[in-house]
Amino acid sequence: xSDHVYKTVEVTGSSSESSDDAIRKAVAKASQSLRRLEWFxxxxxxxxxxxxxxxxxxxxxxxxxxxxx
Length: 69
What we know:
Radius of gyration: 14 Å
Number of helices: 1
Distance between the termini: 13 Å
Shape: elongated
Number of domains: 1
CATH superfamily: Flavin-binding protein dodecin
Number of strands: 3
Strand order of the largest sheet: 1-3-2
Helix content: 10-25%
Largest sheet: 3 strands, antiparallel
CATH class: Alpha Beta
CATH architecture: 2-Layer Sandwich
């Protein structure tokens, strides 16, 4: 197994469905311009309320991708 070097980016996904959907959207969008995505961590979860109910989830994730050798 060789040693690898990683870079991270931070993106925020949003969804009216769920926090999980917001994460999936953030990762999917990042994968359109980045290669070798390897992991993510959730940095922050927040939301928008409308009429005392959750209207939108907003999840900030840090995504790690492996730099080319």
